[in-house]
Amino acid sequence: MKKRYQVLFALSLLSMITFLDRIALSSASSSIMDDLQISTVQWGWIMGMFTMAYGLFEIPTGWLGDRIGGKKVLIRVVLWWSFFTILTGFSTGFTMLLIVRFLFGMGEAGAYPNTSIVLSKWFPVLERGRAQSIIWGASRIGAALTPFLVIPLQQNYSWHVSFYVLGAIGIIWVIFWMFWHREEPAQSTSISKEELDHILTNRDLPLDPHENTNGTWKQLFRSANIWFLLAMYFCYATGTYFFQSWFHTYLQKGRLIPQENLIWASSLPYILAALGCLGGGWLSDKACLRYGKKWGRRIVPLIGLFIAGFCMIGASLVQDNLIAIIALAVGMACMDVTAPVAWAVAMDLGGNKSGAVSGSMNTAGLTGAYLSTILFGYLASNYGYYLPVLLIGIIVIAGAFLWLRIDATQKI
Asked: Is 10 exposed, middle or buried (0-12, 13-18, 19+ CB in 10 A)?
C-alpha cells in the first residue's frame, strides 16, 4: 500500500473514534437522563455545551496546526478528548456533566482542521475530495457502530462503562500516531521516490511552509467567497448535528420507538451517510475533471443538500415511523455528500492556510449546530418534536442555494 494511503487509513481510524466518542452521549441519552434526573431542556444545554466549546477552539487549534504541524496538534487533541471521554463516565449530575462536555469539546476542537493539514501535505490536489470522502465516510461508520457498542455495554454493565472503553481506544491511537507518523512526506523513510515526487509536484503548496502566512485573517475575512462558504456550512451543520445530538432522543421520546428497535433505527442514517460521504468526494473529483473545479465542487453538494432538506421536511410531517426513519436516513446520506466536498474546498482555498480556513468553516458550522441544539430542546418541549425537524429541513435547503456563490478556484 502506498504511504499516503497508509496515512489516510490511520486518519480514518481517528475519524471513526472521533464520532464513536461524540455520538456515545446521544446513544446513552435516555439512561443518563433517567439516572441523573436531567430534563429535556437541560439535555439540550449539555449537548450544546460540547458544540459551543468545539466551535470556540476550532479556529485557534487549526491556526496552531498551520504553525507547528498537524501531527503535534492531533496528539494533544486526542489525548485531551480521550481523558474527558473517560471523565464523562464519572459524572454525577447536570452541572458536572455540563462542565465535562465543555472541556471534551475544547479538546476535540481542531481534529478535522488538523486532519486537513495532514492531507494537504500528503495528497495531490485532485485526490483531496476522495481522501476527505474516506475520512468523513469513516466518521459515519463510527457513528453507525456507536449504538452497537454503547447500548449493549449499557444493558450488560452501565452507561458509565461505555465511556471508559471509548476513552481507552483514543489513547491507544495516540501512542501509535506518535511513533509512526511523519509531518512531511520527505521525512518518511518508507515512501518511494516516485510517490514522493508525485505528491510534492501536485499538492499545490509553497516550498516554504511559512511563506505568505502574515495577514492570514485579514485576507480570509475580506473574501466574500469565504463568507458564503461559512454560511453554507452553518446550514449544513445545523442539519447534521440533529443526528449527532437529538436523533436518538427524537426516536425514543418523540416517536416512541421501542428499545429493541433503537439500534438499527439509530444506525441506519449513519450507514447511508457513509455511502453519501464516499460518493460525494468521488463524484466531486470526477466532476472537477469534466467541468472544471468551480462547477465540479458546486454541483454535487448543491443537489445533495436540496434533496436532504425535502427529506427532513417530509419526515417531520409523516406519522408512520418506518417512513420517517427511511426519509431521515436518505436525507442524511444526501446531506453528507457535502462534507468531503466542503473540506476539500477549504483546502483548495486555503493552501498553506488550510487549518485556518477549515477551522473557520467548522466554527461557522458549529455556531449553527450550537444554536439549533439548544433551540431544539425548547421547541420540542413546547411544540412537539416535529417542528424543529421541519425548520432544520428548511435551513438545509437554504444551504443548497449558497453553493451557487462558492468558487473553489479563488485561492486566498
From this structure: middle
